Amino acid sequence: MNKEQYVAGKSIDQWIEDFPVIDDMVSTKEVVWINPNYDVSKSVSNSLGKHDVFDAEKRLNRFAPYLAKVFPETKAMNGMIESPIVPIRTMQGYLEKRYNREIPGELWMKCDSHLPIAGSIKARGGIYEVLQHAEDLALRHGKLTIHDNYELFDSESFRDFFSQYSIAVGSTGNLGLSIGIMSAKIGFNVTVHMSADAKQWKKDLLRSRGVNVIEYASDYSKAVEEGRKQAENDPNCYFIDDENSKHLFLGYAVAAKRLQKQLDENKIIVDQEHPLFVYLPCGVGGGPGGVAFGLKLLFQDHVHCFFAEPTHSPCMLLGLLTGLHDQVCVQDFGIDNKTEADGLAVGRPSRFVGKTVESLLSGVYTIEDDELYVLLQALSDTEKINLEPSALAGMLGPVKLTGSEQGKQFFETYGLEPKLKQGTHIVWATGGNMVPAEIMDEYYQRGLSVTQKNI
Ligand SMILES: *Cc1c(COP(=O)(O)O)cnc(C)c1O
Q1: Which alpha helices (H) appear in 266-345, and where do they start and end?
Q2: Residue 133 Cα, ligand 1 centroid: separation in angstroms?
Q3: Ligand 1 atom closest to Cα of 252?
Q4: pLDDT of 239-276, one tens digit each?
Q5: CATH class name, domain 6-47+76-117+247-454
Q6: What is the pLDDT of residues 182-191, one digit of tens each?
Q7: Which residues are recorded as modified (N6-(pyridoxal phosphate)lysine) (predicted)?
Q8: Which value, to the nearest 10 degrees, does the dihedral of the CA atoms of residues 244, 36, 45, 294 take?
Q9: Which atom of ligand 1 is nearest to the CA of 287?
Q10: What pLDDT score does 455 carry?
């Protein structure tokens, strides 16, 4: 890479001088970055607030009877799309041993990998936005009031009505799955523009549900751009904008209140003396950003949110660090955006999310692909839980915080050291349940071979 190259008026050398962590980032080494702009009092005054999240939650409740009817796997939960939290003590022991350190506090996992309908965190934002749009159309055309039983949506007349409209989205895979499956069920014409990273089985599955899948040889940003173009030329086409959508964001944010209830049920305290650390895999930012935003509304300074990105796609970190947000991409710094973690293979971050989380996020760290596979195999062995590679990015969070200078300084700055023992870590497991068994086995084998290589 040419360090004389200019990015936003500065040479890369100058950027590195101003932000030394960039040096390791361009060499795709793992880094830990603590956010110097953390200030929760600023973030709550953002244009979105509690009432928006509450509104999103109520909308999902209105649709619950419909979802329970058309997706039988949601019936046991009365049409609520939610995942459990589970303690992962054996995995915690494994991490302590492998990385040779103590992880004080309890380690839990949020199993969004097992969310019904789409098997990933995208079942929150993606499904929410499709429902929001469907409700909006039905209300505007006098087919519905918000007091009706939404089982109405499961009718020929509704499906006929929605077949006049289309939905477009650009995706690396999981967002396409969630939006494709939900839109097709409602009756929309839906097109998913897939980046080159998207896995074949995800495209096959969508096609089998009647979704149009268009494939591109380039990355996520191109797929999104094409989706946007399709919608611009067609007034009946609604584009779900992963880079800017407030609806997606709010759909993700609803997770926080439901998590709070689960924490209560499991007698997990979150307050001044009992810190909560949450580790969220980050692609363009909407999923982890929405969840973090919701959590900060509820727990303010008592929750500490960290994003995790692949060493080859650290777009959110680059955007936050430089303050350039969507005006910078990893390729500008000679980083190739090539990662096996397809859900995180994003080179340019969302500006909307970056601006929203810039003062509420505690930090970001990066993780190597090989490590994702090692953790994938280990989680399968220790807890019998299978995740896709992207979803393991959060697992290194407690290790990074307890084992790095930056982490130690962070604990010190916020007086956390003496409270760690009574604290809780939650690793957000963002996907994996829909991965076909033979592909999961390949992932597992790759984890094994990396582990053996390193012995
Ligand atoms: C999409 C995705 C993420 C990240 O969500 P963004 O909104 O892109 O930041 C994390 N993990 C998995 C498995 C995903 O599919």
Answers
A1: 286-299, 315-322
A2: 21
A3: 7
A4: 999 999 999 999 999 999 999 999 999 999 999 999 99
A5: alpha beta
A6: 999 999 999 9
A7: 122
A8: 60
A9: 7
A10: 65
Residues with CB under 6 A from ligand 1: 120-122, 174, 281-288, 343-344, 388, 390-391, 430-431
User: Could you tell me if 157 and 73 are in contact, meaning their C-beta atoms sit under 8 angstroms apart?
Assistant: no
Asked if residues 239 and 265 have their Cβ atoms less than 8 Å apart, the reply is no
How far from the centroid of its chain's Cα atoms is residue 202's Cα? 17
Q: Distances in Å between the alpha carbon of 307 and those of 175, 380, 428?
A: 19, 23, 10
Q: pLDDT, tens digit, for every residue of 47-64?
A: 789 999 999 999 999 999
68: pLDDT strictly greater than 90: yes
The best mutation among 197, 344, 392 to test binding of ligand 1, ranked by most ligand atoms within 8 Å of the C-beta, falls on 344
> Is the pLDDT score of 219 beyond 90?
no
- Tens of pLDDT along 351-375? 999 999 999 999 999 999 999 999 9
Ligand 1 atom 1, closest CA: 343
Dist. CA 167 → ligand 1 center (Å)? 20
Q: Indicate the residue type of 130.
A: V
CATH 3.40.50.1100 is the classification of domain 121-244: yes
Domain residue spans in the chain?
A: 6-47+76-117+247-454, 121-244
45 pLDDT exceeds 70?
A: no
**Token pair 């505007």: residue:** 140
112 CA distance to ligand 1 middle (Å): 11
Q: What is the distance between the alpha carbons of residues 32 and 35, in angstroms, rounded to a whole number?
A: 10
Distance of alpha carbon 343 from alpha carbon 341, whole angstroms: 6
Q: Could you tell me the pTM of the whole model? A: 0.97
- Residue 339 C-alpha to ligand 1 middle, in angstroms? 13
Instruction: Tell me how far the alpha carbon of residue 282 lies from the centroid of ligand 1, in angstroms.
Output: 6
What mean pLDDT, rounded, does the chain reach?
95
* pLDDT score for 44: 56
Predicted pLDDT at 46: 60
Residue 345 Cα to ligand 1 middle (Å): 9
